[in-house]
Amino acid sequence: MSAQPVFTNITQHAQGAALPENYQKEQSLKALDFGCGIGRQSILVGEFGIKAYGIDISQNALSMAELQAQSHRKSKHFIRPQFCLYDGQHIPFSDNFFDFSISYGVLDSLPFALALNLVQEIARVSKEYIFVSLIGAESTHGFSNLNTSYFTDEIQVQEAHEKGTIQSFFDRAKIERLFASTGFSIIWLHKRISTNELDSTIEESRYYVVLKRDKAHKKARTQGGA
């Protein structure tokens, strides 16, 4: 499913309320695409006239992302993304470097304990907003080692194309736990469920979440020199 309709929601926030008072029109917003893969979301960000920085642990994926960006049919406002490798633990940018960050279908492909650590890093480098997409608890269809219609834990995927990887499933409570200690609060939470009209099977459920930095936490970071 395309991210553009829901991504537009956060770019409207970022291009409006998230702008600092001394913002100049010739400046470009900066966005982190965490776990960018082959760069689809980074390129989409660039179409909004925003400078995207895509990071990933896979050099092969980043090489493909560079090729995608080079061959992309550019619009008038397009800003080419920048891609870089990271170590899977520490985001190689300073505190508050990005106006906002996105992570599309990445944090749900990690053990929850690791995701808890990484959202702290995402929060550290994000000034104002975070946008994430997470697979929902009803998305059990197609996983051979699940025989339930609702699941909120994590499994090791058995299917060939992602065999051996982790899939973590989310409900609202688990999403709230994920971001509880980040200094960000959920301001928009939408769950979209895709069903097979022939037999009413749920093929996928997915959450789209927008978070905003808490004012008290923002003030504390500013006073602390962050």
UniProtKB/TrEMBL annotation:
Domain of life, per lineage: Bacteria
Keywords from the UniProt entry: Methyltransferase, Transferase
GO terms classed as biological process: methylation
Spans through the membrane: none
Keyword Transferase: yes
UniProt domain Methyltransferase type: residue ranges: 32-127
Keyword 4Fe-4S: no
GO molecular function, one term: S-adenosylmethionine-dependent methyltransferase activity
Protein name (Swiss-Prot/TrEMBL): Class I SAM-dependent methyltransferase
